[in-house]
């Protein structure tokens, strides 16, 4: 109401002259006011206890030598913790941005997988066609400096040193055996959602695609690979979904739409309110192969399992590997007013035949396990170990030595003379002091080289089993 329309403070018009609509309007305004008061009262009753506790503690809580916590942050963390849901998280703006970049497959880096050591980082993998591989960096190399800055501290921020300042050239100091090398490597934005090439098994050629995530452009990138295979008359396809923790639902649909015939139910999203979302294949062009395989393992999860289930049930793909993770729920994101991102579970998903994999996973057609370091093996030990020592940490040392082929005579936790000799052989081969004593530093090397060992193609039993299948076609 504008100032010129404002009513006088006292109504001076005679009652008989009032318009009947005015009375009705007054009644409506009274009802609205009553309703608003009721809503506000309900709101106040609902939230008053939380607000009162937070306000009281924020103002008056004190404890010797303790700083007051961020009550609002603690309340949010408490709400999320109460859900007991491993997939619901509250990200800071920077964490949310980093998470979405990793899911999308676009990262700033040099294309390197590594593990921290006491002095530098051990290169586990230099990704094919990435800047690190092109610069000549090899698995087994140890990077000790970035642009002259030492990274031998255990918690050195290697990623930050590489990417701070954006794209450009970095100078790395690399230890290869007893030799020190200086390597120039380019830092750039990498699209690493998939890698593909034509490989051979005996006299058979096949198309190999490693999918690392389901990003916004993964369907388009996969189609480029499939088209390339078709032009080369490849009739056997392998999709490697091992260690792929998922990504976007839309990306999974786009991938499936490349193989599954029009109208088929790809998967269902069930939010539990009776309104299911059913995703079906469109009439777009399809790619078919005479033989198709999927490599999966215990870290194949979410969108990867959606894809594996549908291709197995609808497109005759055979699953090779171990039981998948078993993540049968989906999340969505909500950006908050401060830029934080809430990622939360809102539904479960169902396979084409209507089953849910939550807590169960998918069972491969051909079950093959790879060498594992063991989930119970810690990344560090609390003390140095030598001959006649006895303890659980010695068991871990012996298991790692055995995995690497150094053959201690036992794995029962007694540090025998044969264990000392195996440790000495490991130290000598990797440029460490060959005293046969497993120090904290030596143990970190044992762990890192075990990871390198079990991730190498030579020890990939699942991949070798797949090659045997293809050779028999």
Sheet of most strands: 7 strands, antiparallel
Unreliable parts: 1-23, 27-37
What is the helical fraction, as a range of percent?
25-40%
Q: Could you say which structural class the secondary elements and strand pairing correspond to?
A: alpha+beta
Number of helices: 12
User: How many DSSP E strands?
Assistant: 18
Percent in strands:
15-25%
What is the CA–CA distance across the termini?
83 Å
Roughly how many Å is the radius of gyration?
30 Å
Order of helices and strands: HHEHEEEHEEHEEEEHEHEEEHEEEEHHHH
User: What's the mean pLDDT score?
Assistant: 87
Tell me, what's the shape? globular
Give a brief rundown of this model:
By secondary structure, the protein is an alpha+beta fold. 34% of the residues lie in helices and 23% in strands. Strands 2, 3, 4, 5, 6, 7 and 8 form a 7-stranded antiparallel β-sheet that branches. A 6-stranded mixed β-sheet has the order 9-10-11-14-15-18, with helices on both faces. Strands 1, 12, 13, 16 and 17 form a 5-stranded antiparallel β-sheet that branches.
């Amino acid at each position: 109401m504008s100032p010129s329309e404002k009513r006088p403070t006292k109504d001076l018009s005679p009652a008989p002259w009032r318009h009947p609509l005015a009375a009705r309007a007054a009644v409506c305004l009274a009802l609205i006011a009553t309703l608003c008061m009721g809503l506000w009262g309900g709101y106040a009753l609902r939230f008053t206890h939380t607000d009162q506790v937070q306000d009281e503690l924020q103002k008056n809580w004190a404890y010797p030598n303790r700083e007051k916590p961020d009550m609002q942050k603690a309340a949010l963390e408490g709400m999320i913790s109460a859900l007991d849901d491993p997939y619901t998280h509250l990200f800071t703006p920077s964490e949310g941005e980093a998470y979405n970049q990793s899911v999308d497959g676009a990262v700033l880096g040099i294309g390197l997988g590594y593990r921290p050591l006491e002095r530098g980082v051990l290169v586990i993998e230099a990704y094919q066609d990435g800047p690190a591989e092109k610069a000549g960096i090899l698995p087994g190399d140890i990077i000790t400096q970035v642009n002259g800055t030492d990274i031998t501290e255990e918690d050195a921020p290697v990623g930050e040193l590489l990417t701070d300042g954006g794209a450009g050239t970095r100078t790395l100091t690399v230890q290869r055996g007893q030799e020190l090398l200086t390597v120039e490597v380019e830092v750039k934005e990498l699209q690493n959602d998939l890698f593909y090439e034509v490989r051979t098994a005996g006299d058979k050629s096949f198309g190999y695609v490693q999918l690392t995530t389901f990003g916004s452009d993964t369907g388009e990138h996969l189609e480029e690979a499939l088209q390339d295979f078709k032009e080369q008359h490849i009739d056997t396809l392998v999709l490697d979904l091992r260690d792929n923790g998922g990504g976007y639902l839309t990306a999974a649909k786009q991938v499936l739409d490349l193989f599954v015939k029009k109208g088929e139910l790809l998967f269902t999203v069930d939010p539990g309110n009776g309104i299911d979302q059913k995703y079906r294949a469109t009439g777009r062009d399809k790619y078919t192969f005479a033989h198709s395989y999927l490599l999966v393992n215990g870290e194949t999860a979410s969108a990867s399992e959606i894809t594996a289930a549908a291709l197995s049930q609808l497109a005759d793909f055979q699953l090779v590997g171990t039981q998948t993770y078993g993540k049968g729920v989906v999340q969505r994101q909500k950006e908050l007013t401060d830029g934080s991102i809430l990622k939360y579970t809102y539904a479960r998903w169902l396979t084409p035949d209507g089953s849910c994999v939550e807590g169960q996973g998918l069972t491969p057609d051909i079950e093959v396990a790879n060498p594992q370091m063991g989930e119970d093996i810690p990344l560090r030990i609390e003390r140095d170990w030598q001959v006649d020592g006895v303890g659980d940490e010695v068991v871990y040392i012996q298991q790692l030595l055995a995995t690497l082929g150094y053959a201690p005579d036992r794995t029962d936790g007694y540090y025998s003379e044969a264990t000392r000799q195996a440790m000495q052989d490991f130290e000598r081969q990797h440029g460490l002091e060959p005293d046969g004593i497993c120090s904290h530093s030596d143990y970190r090397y044992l762990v890192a080289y075990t990871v390198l060992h079990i991730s190498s193609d030579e020890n990939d039993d699942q991949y070798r089993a797949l090659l045997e299948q293809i050779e028999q076609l």
